[in-house]
Amino acid sequence: MAAPITFRALSEADLPLLHDWLSRPHVAEWWEPTPTFEEVREDYLPRLAPQDVRPLDARAGVVQYLAYEGDVPFAFVQAYRVMAHQHEGWWQDETDPCALGIDQFIGLPDRLGQGLGTRLLRAFLQFLFEDPRVTTVQTDPSPDNARAIACYRKVGFRDVGLVTTPDGPELLLRATRDSRA
Hints:
The chain is an alpha+beta fold. The chain has helices spanning 15-22, 25-28, 37-44, 116-129, 146-154, and strands spanning 5-9, 62-69, 72-81, 99-106, 136-139, 158-165, 168-176. It is 24% helix and 29% strand. Residues 5-178 form the N-acetyltransferase domain.
């Protein structure tokens, strides 16, 4: 039986591991160009949140986590208040103050293709919906990222449609409490 998946808010001590994962080709292909360690510090350090804060309460509007299988960290996940990022050009039409967006990746290439992404998303949706205020969770993979899209659909995300974001065209998908599989 697989170990349970848990989440711990990202800390400054985790930044070297995060940098290592961001440097891996399977992550850089979909996430961002490989950053330097200093760029990781500049980007992620200001958004660190206390261990017990929920995304709707985060001062920066985002909470970043390491996902663990048992006691082994294997993925990075983040959740953010969708409306908190409208000033950056994201989600201009969103009017729900309790809608969350998520992004994630598995950092360990040897764990890909084993169903861990599905388990990760199911566990993260359960974790997020423990907050009764959360109404919907959305994500926006590249339309070319067939593996991610299949995984999202498998756990209950439904296609909303193609959208234009500051990063270019993306496929907007949403999950609700009732749509989860």
